Amino acid sequence: MPGSVLELTVDGSSMPTYLAVPEGDGPFPGIVVAQHRLGVDVFIRTICDWLAQAGYVAAAPDIYHRGWSREQFDKTTAMPRGDNQAEAVLASLSAALIDSEIVRDMNAAFIHLKEQPVVDRKSLGVLGFCMGGRIAYLMATRNASLKGTGCFYPGNIFESRGGGPSVFAASDRIESPIIGFTGKDDTNPSPDDMERVGKELTRLKVEHDFHLYDGLGHAFMDPTNPQSYIQNVTNDAWTKLIAFYDAKLKA
Predict the structure, then answer these.
(1) 20 to 30 A Cα–Cα from 16, which one of 38, 102, 195, 239?
(2) How many helices (H) and strands (E) does the chain have?
(3) Within a 10 A sphere around the Cβ of 102, how many other Cβ atoms?
(4) pTM of the model
(5) Closest Cα partner for 46 from 185, 225, 177?
(6) Where are the domains of the chain?
(7) Is the peptide bond before 189 cis (omega within 30 degrees of 0)?
(8) Is the pLDDT assigned to residue 21 strictly greater than 90?
(9) Where are the alpha helices (DSSP H) in the chain?
(10) Model pLDDT, residue 1
(11) pLDDT tens, 183-238?
(12) Would you call 203 helix, strand, or coil by DSSP?
């Protein structure tokens, strides 16, 4: 069953959040999905719906909520990829993000999940794509209760937003196992970037499993992006991702 948009409040601002819930009584594990640059759009909502079909309550908060109204959120996230008007709005919103606010937004979604009777509050994970992959890694450094972290092509992982250490520099705070997926032709993150992250996680004895696909660049999971989407790789990565969450969140 498709999800719906509810409103959470963070820092006095109303934050639209897409919520997808499996059929049945539960309790189910919960996963917060970090949006990509295009926001909580068709792709991110589809991911939440797929997670619900796999037996997870999924919530995707709009981390742009401080910069636009609910009407702008509804209009822009419904626009097709590449729309010039949407791109102009999204560019300014993404440039204004800072890590401390992102963490508060994501934690508000986690709190909401833990308050739902249908959610097993002790079985929580995070997932993100592109910008959201970085956010998922960020949350693994900030939320010790997470049982599983999924990162798809996490760009700019060596950068900080708003001061403080970079996401990568805080890797010693991670307690959650991590699974990652990238293409070998990607440049952000590049294969060398992922090798560097993997070596650091190995040094820190953080459980991780990174998958690099030959001949692929960025955004290969997104069906709304026909220039990069690869269905057979999407199927393979999704199978591995759900097996990971099943082992970590449903055990």
Answers:
(1) 239
(2) 7, 8
(3) 22
(4) 0.97
(5) 225
(6) 4-249
(7) yes
(8) yes
(9) 42-53, 70-77, 84-95, 99-114, 131-142, 191-203, 231-249
(10) 62
(11) 999 999 999 999 999 999 999 999 999 999 999 999 999 998 888 999 999 999 99
(12) helix
User: Do the beta carbons of residue 34 and residue 62 sit within 8 Å?
Assistant: no
In percent, the amount of the chain with pLDDT more than 70 equals 100
Query: pLDDT category, 97, cuts 50, 70, 90?
Result: very high
Q: Which tokens belong to 117? A: 């009777």
pLDDT at 145: 94
Pairing relationship of beta strands 57-61 and 4-10 according to DSSP bridges: unpaired
Are residues 115 and 57 in contact, defined by beta-carbon separation less than 8 angstroms? no
Residue 2, pLDDT > 80, answer no
**Cα 38 to chain center, whole Å?**
12
CATH number of the domain at 4-249, out of 2.60.40.1170, 2.60.40.10, 3.40.50.1820, 3.20.20.70?
3.40.50.1820
Residue bearing tokens 């791109």: 87
What is the rounded distance in angstroms from the CA atom of residue 128 to the CA atom of residue 32? 9
